[in-house]
Amino acid sequence: MNKKSISNILLVSSLMSPISAAIANEQAPVPVTIETISTRSFEDVIQEVGKINAIDSAALTFSAGEKITAIHFKDGDAVKKGDLIAELDSTKAKADFDKAKSSLGLAKTKLARIQNLLAKQPDALSPQDVDEMKEEVNLAKADFSQKKAALGDYQIIAPFNGQLSSFTQSIGSHIAASTTLVSIYNLNPVEVKYAISQNDLGKAAKGQTVTVTVEAFKEATFEGVVDYVAPAVDVSSGRVEIHARIDNPDNHLAPGMFANVKQLFHKGNSHLVVPQNSVLAQNDERYVWLYSNSGTTKQDVTLGKNTNDGYVIVNAGLKEGDQVITTGQQKLEINTPITVINHKPAAKKSAVPALVTSAVEKSKPAVSETSKAMPEPEAKLTPEPVEPSAAVAPISAKSTSVMANETPTNEVN
User: Fold this and answer.
1) Which residue in 20, 132, 272, 370 is a FRET match for 322, CA 20 to 30 A apart?
2) How many whole angstroms separate alpha carbon 337 and alpha carbon 333?
3) DSSP H or E stretch at residue 196
4) Quick one: pLDDT band at residue 299, thresholds 50, 70, 90?
5) Helix axes 127-152, 91-120, angle to 10 degrees
6) What is the number of helices (H) and of strands (E) in the chain?
């Protein structure tokens, strides 16, 4: 081979070396998927444990001590206001009543005769004698009223509509005054009593809706309305007592039951949400990769509560309509080429989730160093119906390659 040929080969080799190196060093585009983020409406709900109580209840007792002569109802019977439930032996009391009744009648008769006599003979009696006769009538009336009231001490009358408990004694038993014979409960409506954190005192108000579930009827939900908010924080517990009234026509809710209570504070609070798998972490930093026609950018975000359906609330860093990279972002670095293989429009929701704050406060959101470990929820979120968000027009189905860069395109207020 002559010197000229060798020179040509060396020249071609020197020219091809940079091209070959560039081809060798060229990085294959990273396939990614993107999703358009949107706002969703949430209901602000607090969840607590309470206890069912009867609004009207009473321990029924006699005001006198004597032998029971009659019980007109059985254990658990329903009664109406004014029904005679039980009686004591009132023989002596009735005799005293009859005596007072007779004395009153006699006094009235004497006064009537005197008044007739005075009509014919004005000077037949002195005014003092007449006044004494009138006073005797008044005293007889007072004695009669007292003896009549005393008869009530030997009876138990239903004070309101309700259901009886079991009787503690039977006919023939001697019962002491003020000893409970039976209790009565008005079971419709009932109330649930519970307590909320003092931090939520400003949110609670009369008229707010509550929903209640109990273990005995796991598939049933009972609705009620708040009718009492304590005006002060309990000194011992540091919490605020709440009462809510619940209709109970079927008597499913019984006094003493424990109940899971959800109280609705607000409706329709809007929050921006982002897919959890789009969020990455680097130390205390939380960030996402955004996609736009001009390329991709890294954007810091401040996170809120998880929604428990694959999304997390964003308090700062993004706006509605931004397009976040949801898969493949772990491999992105500055100037990394990407290929969009799928674009998901803004998620449409058929339910308004409820921001549920449980009785036990959870830790603040924390994202791990990879997108697989997402923020821990501050509070549990239970989805319910919501208005669908408007979807941003999707990117062309044709795959596109762009370079990742470090300059943010979105400014956070």
Assistant:
1) 370
2) 9
3) strand 180-197
4) confident
5) 160
6) 3, 23
> Which pLDDT belongs to residue 27?
62
d(CA 31, CA 402): 11
Q: What is the pLDDT of residues 120-167, one digit of tens each?
A: 888 777 888 788 888 988 999 999 999 999 998 999 999 999 999 999
Interatomic CA distance for residues 374 and 381, integer angstroms = 15
Amino acid at 58: A
Helix (H, G, I), strand (E, B) or coil at 4: helix
How far is it, in rounded angstroms, from Cα 148 to Cα 400?
A: 99
Give the whole-number percent of the chain exceeding pLDDT 90.
40
Query: Which tokens go with 9?
Result: 């080969």
- Rounded Cα gap, residues 104 and 280, in angstroms: 95
Distance from C-alpha of 246 to C-alpha of 194, rounded to nearest angstrom: 13
108 class by beta-carbon count within 10 Å (0-12 exposed, 13-18 middle, 19+ buried): middle
Position 63 confidence tier, pLDDT thresholds 50, 70, 90: very high
Give yes or no for a cis peptide into 189 (omega within 30° of 0).
yes
How far is residue 117 from each of residues 124, 137, 172, measured CA to CA in Å?
Answer: 7, 17, 54
Strand partners, 330: none
Integer Cα distance of 327 and 370 in angstroms: 11
Q: How far apart are CA 365 and CA 371, in angstroms?
A: 13
- CA 279 – CA 370 distance, rounded (Å): 8
CB count within 10 Å of CB 136 equals 17
Q: Kindly give, in sequence order, each residue whose CB lies less than 8 Å from that of residue 31, ignoring residues fewer than 6 positions away.
A: 328, 338, 339, 341
Q: Tokens standing for 248?
A: 């109970």
Among 145, 142, 113, smallest CA distance to 130 is for 113
Q: What is the mean pLDDT of the chain?
A: 79
Read off the pLDDT of each residue in 110-129 and give the average, rounded to a whole number. Answer: 82
What is the token pair recorded at 378? Answer: 């501050």
How far is it, in rounded angstroms, from Cα 117 to Cα 238? 78
Q: For the residues of 101-143, what is the DSSP string, one character each?
A: HHHHHHHHHHHHHHHHHHHH-TTSS-HHHHHHHHHHHHHHHHH
What is the DSSP annotation of 11-33? HHHHHHHHHHHHHHHPPPPEEEE
Q: Tell which wins on pLDDT, 123 or 172.
A: 172
